[in-house]
Amino acid sequence: MSSHRIERITEDIKRELTAIFRGLKDPRVKDTLISIVRVEVTSDLSYCNIYISTIDGLDRTKTAVLGLKSASGYIKRELGSRLKLRHIPELIFHATDSIEYATDISRKLNELKER
Is the pTM value of this prediction over 0.90? Predict the structure, then answer.
């Protein structure tokens, strides 16, 4: 499959997941500002790795990922209804601390700037 098509599908999945996450009612997900850091789809569209981060830290992100894993059937069904794909990939959620890491670097740079 062409890389251009995979990139387009990846962006479509990321866009739709953002909309689907806003509608989830699970308190582990609903009460947290979730950011999708990266989405990777395999070339045969069988798996989709989704990297999630929150500003509240890695522990809160891991809790949100547990909520997303429990709602993965619903999320996959919603993706299927929103995207025109023959096969919806298996969703694999990963917790990452990239937002927390970025805010820490920004804070350190601001401290250096003040000196």
Answer: no
